[in-house]
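From the shared-data thread, chain only:
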Amino acid sequence: MTVDDILEKDNCIPAIVPGNLEIDLQRAGLLEDPFYGQNVLKAQELEAVHMFYGRKFKYSKTERTVPILTFEGLDTVAEIYLNGKLIGSCENMFVAQTFQLDTIKDGENDLLVHIIPACIAARGRKLSVYNSALKYNYESLRLRKSASMFGWDIMPRLVSGGIYRPVYIEDRPLEYLKQVYVMAKYVDPNINLAEIEMFFDAEVLGDAISEYEITLRGHCRDSSFEISDRLWFSAGHIRVWVENALLWWPKGYGAQALYDVEVTLSKNDVVIDTWMTRFGIRSVALERTAITDQFLSGKFQFYVNNKKIFILGTNMVPIDALHSRDRQRLPRVMELVEDTGCNMIRLWGGGIYEDDYLYDFCDEKGILIWQDFCMACGTYPVDDDFCEVMREEGEKVVRRLRQHPAIAIWAGDNECDVMGFKGKPSNNKITREVLQKVVEFEDSMRPYLPSSPFVDLEAEKYPGDLLPENHLWGPRDYYKSEYYKRSLCSFVSEIGYHGCPSRSSLGKFLPADKLWPWKGNDDWMLHASSMEKGERGIFAYRIELMAKQIKELFGEIPDTLDDFILASQISQAEAKKFFIEFFRTGQPKRTGIIWWNLIDGWPQFSDAVVDYYFEKKLAYHYIKQVQQPVLLSIKEPENWNLVLVAVNDTDQSLALKYCIKEMTAGEVIIDEETTIHHGVTPLKNIPYSQGEKKMYLMEWEVNGCKGKNHYLAGNPPFSLEVYRRLLKDLY
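Structure, as tokens:
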């Protein structure tokens, strides 16, 4: 099969790589924007379409090299032909696919890629009664394709296909470094001493191994290290001590020192291959217990360089339903992560392993990464064949990403422990054996968590609310309900609340006659994201849930679109703010929060605080305020008082100047100065009766930096009009 064979057909269109089928069809005028109105339902008609990508290219062979063809992202089941001959196949969109081009010619060559429809390729693959998934996601149980592409509550069913990341040919030397990993084996932050260890695996052809030498060099500002040794075998370890080492710290805890590292392989003093990276000297650890109790005595605590880190993070779901657009959106997305004050992101298991840009950005900015392996909300097969697929994928993913100091933890999957395996998550051979061994063998310097939340053998005996790390979804009722306030987890890695996008954003994806009302509106429901009309869709409840959350806070559901949007965004903003403050002021027993979620991957009604078009909801601004290193917060009323506290996540004792105003009366009730130390410091009691509805504004200054926060006191319902009037002073 060749490019000319395909060009003889009458249904060829120009394609752009990286790209996706839907984008090419839309560019050719053959498909309406699948993100608009109900068009996403029409895109489902493409699920049985075969795709053929072809091009001719010229190649000139280099001496003593082997040409290697690499697809960084091929979605998903594909056959690759070179000059009319099948040279290989693949069926995993998550990892790079490489092919040695033994039959390539000097001069013109013909490359063709046949992508088989994922939904068809998945049929007939072995599943049993034991296997389970969400209604739309059964294909993803065996097919290594992003689960959310088949439909999720935060993503449309847009199965798609294509070559979504770059493709290139490299001439690899005959002798080369197959694998290198530079790690901080020992770190003493008290005296800035570190032991660096490098593992290498080289392809060497000469019989005399003594002719080869390996050299490791690294430098960062005025710190450097270097060590060389002859090869005694084609693989091995070398170690070097670094005095006055510059350490890598998470955001808010120190600088992000990154060493420029070069590793060279030489033969008879001639360099034959070079490998380069950036390297951060740091240690990372996780202290956890199987369960907790009513006294919050369980543990889920991250340490970096032996220091406790309070985690302020956000969940990152796919940032575009069509993954070829991920890279172009990432710079703006990562700016939002930094701007909100997050020191961790969780890369959720229903998506993909992200572009290198994200990992490099986090290295530079000190943003820790919680990396899920790509499985979510299902009972996956555990037979030998699938375990081998996951072993190969895990090995490739870990080897690709382990050099990044930002990665703090590997997690086996998202919610598979709590959603499947018939109450016995320990039966999950993939996460308890396969991936655990991958991390142990390939990256033992980082913690591994088999699932999030993780139910180990001991925890299987107890209720799920006793897990020290948990996802708090529950009834999703009033954000100060007993469900949230009485939660026992030390660390929450998913918690969210709905917020309606702005009117300007709604107008970009909803027809004018579908903007309002919300009730009985199929367009709203489809963008919620229910992938079928009517009540059969498993996510059909989500628009009404958003409306109920508005009614819970304000006592009624507004009858105009603008008021509905405002009320919904206030409801979300107050909820997200409360969740973050609840965990921050609960230190030291509360150790972190990763809220759901930062940004949408398509236009929708969701928990995201930034919509697909980068419009910030009110919650974004509130989150930015309450994730500053120093925070003033008012805790829930107790004993006829509100307790004003200061949270100081820095290591310094700080001079604090602050003012508290009761906004409804316009009265300043506190105007003082004090000194605060690391941790949570009670400042003042404010007399208060439960029947009052008040708004308190807190403003402060520390080291010339100003901060602002507020507290909505009382029990709902509140007045939307009063809140609207006060809003201009809140952020």
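The mean pLDDT is 96.
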